Amino acid sequence: MSEMQTRMNKLLGFLIELLDIPQSYYERAKERARSLEDWLRREESMVAHLKPDVYPQGSFRYGTVIRPLFKHDEYDLDLVCAVNLSKSTVTQRQVKELIGQEIVAYAKSYQFKEPAKEKPRCWRLNYADHVSFHMDILPAVPEDAATIRVIFERQVPAALAEHAIAITDTRHPHYREIDPKWPSSNPRGIALWFEDRARPAAQYRINELVRCRTYASIDEVPPYEWKTTLQRAIQILKRHRDVMFKGDRDLAPISMIITTLAAHAYSGEEDLYSALDNILTKMPLFVRKQTPRIPNPVNPAEDFADCWSRDSRYEQNFWLWHSQVKADLRHLWEAIGRKELPREIHNQFRLDLTTNQAQSLEVEVSKSTLRVITATPVISIPAAPKPWGE
Amino acid sequence: MPDDFLHRYAQWEIEVLLQLHPDLRLRPSSKDVVVLTGTIAFSAQKPGYEQIDDAFDVDIKVPNQFPQEFPHVWEIGSRIPPTYHKLQDGSLCLGSPARIRLAIKQSPTLVAFVQFCVIPYLYGFAFQERFQTLPFGELSHGMAGLREDYAELFGVEGEKLAVEMVRLASLHKRDANRLPCPCGSEKRVGKCHNRRVNEMRELLGRKWLADEFHRLSRIR
User: Fold this and answer.
1) DSSP tag of A254
2) CB A133: neighbour CB atoms within 10 A?
3) Confidence check: pLDDT of B2 > 50
4) Fewer CB within a 10 Å sphere, N or C end of chain B?
5) pLDDT of A58 strictly over 70
6) DSSP collapsed to 3 states, chain B
């Protein structure tokens, strides 16, 4: 690795220190899932006999959570709450309300500031401790065998397809009827797919954590402990996205798209800079020209970019972001060791290096040979349009 | 697929532009345009004139139809007064539409647009701030300026003749060549001013020139 690349990795590592959340937040997220699951399984619970299964999905599961851009923003913890009922005997509404009653009681019993709120697909609980979290709980039942077979026939490995779940949506035309067509999802399957992409790079760390007896076995090491360059790269990319779209959040590329494309493009690069560079270069290869443009890897009929065909601005903004973040990575590289660096970091990530971090980078830079700073070349203009006016 | 953004932005050389002008940043876009905001810093020189190192804060709006349609540029640092060369929407009037079209035709990228249209304008303004003279001259405002410009483009004397040349260039080649040359030589266009007329027809396009001719003849 070149000296420049070493310094770049050091800088990216510092950014991760500033962006990453304390590990205790992941642990707290897990505890909250467990606490809710315990509640649902207690003796008096109406769903205790349905083997409720509560687990995190999304960035808390992948280990790619970042600090919110604004202090008053909250962390979203997305949980799945699956109960063992069959689509053939219950309606979406029955499942939503059955689980809902228990969640409402949970909020009351644990003295949440606000009661549980119903959203079209989930129940929302607001925690009010010093870290502001809200928890979106997605009621679900296992997907039926026929649906899983269809997914399996689309070349999805059975071990991933079998985790498919059916979820509820108050806006669904058959919300109140017994009907086989529920919205389908597979958060556990996607997580397993993602973890397969990340695991080779995590193996060393996983083994170390078991050797030091932090965990009893390799299966117990949660993905947020892996800290692979894939997860780190996604954190950097999400932050860049958050800053670029801070005034236009609706237009921002969604995390699911960034995460999926990054996981596809990743090839186990050992250092964060190479991972980012490779991901940004290869990302476009995984956007298909036809729909589904960005298929869900565990259900190829589902398109993570389905909104692109509805409104081309979403696609446009994805590519604008991609162009900008690619250029910015290069700008960062060029700014190291120069006075522009703090401004560059601020513009791109709204972050400021700590004094220690900045000093440590400077030591690194001064150790190396002086960089030749090239001045902007002078543009020669022999002829030009004459200015005009209407 | 109707919109291949990746391909389009590659053709525009957006990434090269961001590379060359690190203080220019893409903004989220809620319309059919690409918006770049930030600073254009440059060192430029007309041979034999002073070199100028300067920087301007700008907004650049690039229509999705670029290079068929031109980008518009606003100076947002309040340095260039409204009385200097600006369009009605406050954007910089970088040059006559024909000159901008020629420049973009020659190399249809944003990099070239900034280098050949924007930076020369900013250089010219900054030069005038320092030395009270414009290094490339200027056109009169309004239609008179356009006619002066066409006179120069077609290499003819007089605005009336310039407008006639625009009309000739807006006709099919064979039709134009048969007509008597408006320069007064009493020869057919085909035997007289045909070279420049053909060249402009080819570069600017017959239909575009027809619109220009209508514009020029509407307001005298």
Assistant:
1) P
2) 18
3) no
4) C
5) yes
6) CCCCHHHHHHHHCHHHHHHHCCCEEEECCCCCEEEEEEEEEEEEECCCCCEEEEEEEEEEEEECCCCCCCCEEEECCCCCCCCCCECCCCCECCCCHHHHHHHHHHCCCHHHHHHHHHHHHHHHHHHHHHHCCCCCCCCCCHHHHHHHHHHHHHCCCCHHHHHHHHHHHCCCHHHHHHCECCCCCCCEHHHCCHHHHHHHHHHHCHHHHHHHHHHHHHCC
DSSP string for A341-379: HHHHHHHHHS----HHHHHHHHHHHHHSPPPP-PPPPPE
pTM: 0.91
The encoded tokens of residue A106 equal 């949970």
Across the A:B interface, residue pairs with CB atoms under 8 Å apart total: 153
- The ipTM is 0.88
What b/e readout covers B81-102, taking b as 16+ CB neighbours within 10 angstroms? eeebbbeeeebbbbbbbbbbbb
Contact A380 B41 (CB under 8 A): no
A15-33 pLDDT tens trace: 999 999 999 999 999 999 9
Could B121 and A387 be called an inter-chain contact, meaning their C-beta atoms sit closer than 8 Å? Answer: yes
Tokens of A96: 């939503």
Dihedrals phi, psi of B43, to nearest 5 degrees: -120, 120
Chain A residues in contact with B124 (beta carbon < 8 A): 384, 387
CA A233 to chain centre: 11
Distance in angstroms (rounded) separating the CA atoms of residues B61 and B71: 5
Q: Tokens 């190829």 identify what position?
A: A300
**Residue pair A186/A164 in contact by the 8 Å Cβ criterion:** yes
Q: What is the mean pLDDT of chain A?
A: 93
Closest by Cβ to B42, choosing from A284, A379, A383: A379
Residue A386 to residue B99, Cβ atoms within 8 A: yes
8 A C-beta contact, residue A257 and residue A304: yes
- Determine, for residues A287 and B43 on separate chains, whether the beta-carbon distance falls below 8 Å: no
